[in-house]
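OP here, attaching both records as promised.
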Amino acid sequence: MPQSKSAADVRYWLFKSEPSAFSIEHLAQSPKQTAPWDGVRNYQARNYLRDGVQLGDLVCFYHSSEAPLGIFGTMRVARAAYPDFTQFDPKSKYYDAKSPADNPRWMMVDVQLIQKFDTPVLRESLAAHDVTAGMLVMKKGMRLSIQPMTAAEWKAVHQLANAKLLT
């Protein structure tokens, strides 16, 4: 587990994944409940990973594209951005033949499970709450798999989940 950051240094993020590809259950069953967050193939999401997401940052795990949609728990960034090895593997669905090994195009981070929510915070609950209704994930057409969150949104998600607030 990475060292704790001061509250002023922590950034908050929402990472989206289709549960059939990688769910919070997959993360919970990973060795040390830690896994690489790979396969990001959008430049803005890549930029967030590369330039914004830092070791020790806190992350909401959002299940997307498959019902039920919502936040199923939280993670901590266990390793800062490094080249996504799947871009160099011709057998990977994330292979990118145009990504040079000496200047990789795609990045990933490692995440470690903090907690699975006993009751997920479904999209309908996010939409009904004053603070979380304004989250980027709630905006029409917002498809980015990596999104910043505010400290207020982080706190509100935990309140909606009736979960222990970790900062």
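Record two, same layout:
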Amino acid sequence: MKNHHINLDVRGKACPQPVIETKKALDQLDKGIINVLLDAEPSAVNVSRFASSQGCIVKRNDDDSNTIQLEIIKEFTCEIPGTQSDTTPVSTSAEYSKLLVYINDQYMGKGDEKLGKILMKAFLKTLLECSIRPRQLIFVNSGVYLTTSGSEEIETIRTLEREGTGIFSCGTCLDFYHLKDKLEVGQMSNMFEIASLLLEADRVVVP
């Protein structure tokens, strides 16, 4: 398609629809501009990060009507969807494979929560000692309590991130638990990105 201009209104649409519709619009362009209207901060963050990861320039303008306006400029053919810039491991002594750890609870296992908390702490710390490290850790549902203010595991997770593991917390989950302003480590994600990472992984581990 020739240079083009697309207006995209995704106000009122739940995650991951804003990202999906933005991706579809980008796929239509060889080169051009997409103006996106949103009404939720998590959606604006997710769309901005997705567009940036595809090699696009993103400019943001907010107005007085609580509408967030993003101008996405595609100057060249964007990369295939992914998060390579966010998830490429740094060079360490540990080996990184396409292994993903999917944490959907703040506790590990079923049964006593006190025991589950102890087990989750031990599991995360043990990841630091393993010769094979996960490329990504994804936190969903109450698992996002582990990456937000008040979590006793912040430093362990931050060390994993610093040593090359990508840390992703579900934005919808953060919003549901009123934690979106309390994220301490990693980045807020969306269901499109989470689904893509799960499908691209060679192995998925659920502790």
